[in-house]
Amino acid sequence: MATPSKDYFIVFDRNFQKKLYFNVNFFYLKSYKKKRQIFSYINKPFFRGLVLFGLDFKDKVRPVDFSKIQENGRLDPLNPRLLKKFLIDEKNKFIGFSSQTDQEEFKLIK
Length: 110
Known about the structure:
The protein is mainly β and 110 residues long. The protein has helices spanning 81-88, 103-108, and strands spanning 8-14, 21-33, 38-41, 47-55, 61-69, 75-78, 92-97. Strands 1, 2, 3, 4, 5, 6 and 7 form a seven-stranded mixed sheet that branches.
């Protein structure tokens, strides 16, 4: 999976069908005005995936399973370390959580 060439943002959404899983969507930004915090984006995500977070031996939260959701709904496994690459990439302007995600879930991955 190649790093996007345009600015983007990531949205995590708690998956209520599977405990500890989050749906993750990457969207391209059309425009982003940082000072006024106004943005517009392309509504269709360029990447849809599923990520499982867990604790490592140092009690730090890490992605332990990461998969891409294909157009036909099939899951293709990816290296969980790839998620970190996208989270810290300079083209990633911000990370959001869907309104359906419980506030307690935010504490897990801060």
